[in-house]
Amino acid sequence: MVRKLTAAAALATLAVSCAPETQTPVKVRALVRSSDGQYAPLEVELKTVTDIVALEGTVIRFQGGANIRLDSRDPEAQAATTDEALERALVKEEGHRVTASYIADEAGVLWPADFHTWNLVTTYYNFERAWDYFTTTAEVKKEELPQTTVYYFPEFVLADSSEKPQRDNALFFAPTRSFMVLPFETVQKAPLAINASILTHEYAHLVFNRRVYDGRGIPEPIAAWTIGGGSPTPGLNVIKSLDEGLADFHAYVASCRSSFGCNTRVLDSSFEGRPVEDRDLSQNWCMSKELRDLMFSGNFSVFSGREYQVGTILASALVKASGSDADRQVLARAVAAAYSDTNPLKYGLNQLARNALNRQEDFSLGAAARSIVQHIPAGNVDLKQRVCTRLVTHLQLSIEELSAGQDACPQSTTTSDACPPIAQ
Ligand SMILES: [Zn+2]
């Protein structure tokens, strides 16, 4: 027999079972993609939740009904000189805590009692899994990933492009240092927050922001390298490509721990057709002369959208270089370690970007790729070799650049015939 409970009653039940607050782990049902590719109401454990009704815990807290507006003409935003002031200027209404309702079954497992609770619980679960992946597999310290706000179904307006609130997205938004799960409008398939790969990709943007950008709302390299007038923005083009590609790589590695298994198609199940195929990491992607030229000499206003193409070439090269669980773990750690390292013999992306603030062309794809290689432990000789071959082949990088420096690629690195060479 299934007993219907309001959220308050569910909390009361948990309270009488002897703890003053939500006891973890909490057994709940969430929409999880099973091995046959279908989403099913699976029993899962939330290990970090401290309030099952407000769905708040170590990893995230939800805020419903917020109003967030980005408008370059907003005097309050223009006047903001700190990240905190900018955040206050953009969040016009903070909103309120959410209230989840459950039905407890005889075994005490909580079943979401309405649509939003299914969506909220699944979102919490997906973020918790992403956080678990980063803090265990990728070895990012828990202190670096404190509780983050998720604005749930906010009114989010990007006023410079449209007064119409944004829809159909789940995103990390650096200026408010939070995630947003937006209302749906046209997405007919799995809502984005239900899609574990998409949420892991978004969580990866948070990790990148914290390590590469020091957690800044407006990162210094982005501010320094964004220029108008059609001038080349090679550094900006590269760092945006890294952010997207490495987020897809992490989403892939994290998926290998899921009931669905390794997922090379981050957007699959929420989108279909070209957008999914264009980011499929199992395909053989190669840097073209046209794309490379645009990355070097295009302004981001023109390059925008291509960061996914460059990112996919990078991520698929890393996926192809790592064939086992052990390889994937070593490489995921190397990527996360390469985000920031103050050792001048093998600077991380943070330090490479910082040193190139006034000369963005110095922040090159080759220098960033070399940093990743340098963070693969020296003992992993075969993996390092395979990563080097894949990077120089698929991204068309110079072997000299990748083999310069401590723990970099072996000078014996060669290209493979996976991609036709393009003129240097
Ligand atoms: Zn992204």
Entry keywords:
424 residues; alpha/beta; four-stranded mixed β-sheet; three-stranded antiparallel β-sheet; 14 strands; 41% helix; binds zinc ion
Quick rundown:
By secondary structure, the protein is α/β, with parallel strands linked by helices.
Break the fold down into its secondary structure elements and pairings.
Elements (H helix, E strand, L loop, with lengths): L2 E2 L2 H10 L9 E8 L5 E8 L2 E3 L4 E2 L2 E5 L2 E4 L4 H5 L3 H8 E3 L8 E3 L5 E3 L2 H23 L10 E5 L2 E4 L11 E4 L4 E4 L14 H17 L7 H6 L8 H22 L18 H4 L11 H9 L2 H4 L3 H15 L3 H14 L10 H7 L9 H10 L6 H14 L4 H5 L21
Parallel strand pairs: 6-11, 7-12, 11-14
Antiparallel strand pairs: 1-9, 2-3, 4-5, 7-8, 9-10, 13-14
Helix content: 40-55%
Beta-strand content estimate: 5-15%
Structural class assignment: alpha/beta
Number of strands: 14
Number of helices: 16
Distance between the termini: 70 Å
Shape: globular
What does this structure look like?
- α4 packs across α5 and α5 (196-212) packs across α7.
- Helix content is 41%, strand content 14%.
- It has 16 helices and 14 strands.
- It is α/β, with parallel strands linked by helices and 424 residues long.
- It has a domain at 195-424.
- The strands form 5 sheets. It has a 4-stranded mixed sheet with strand order 6-11-14-13.
- Bound molecules: zinc ion.
- Zinc ion binds at residues 201, 205, 244, 247.
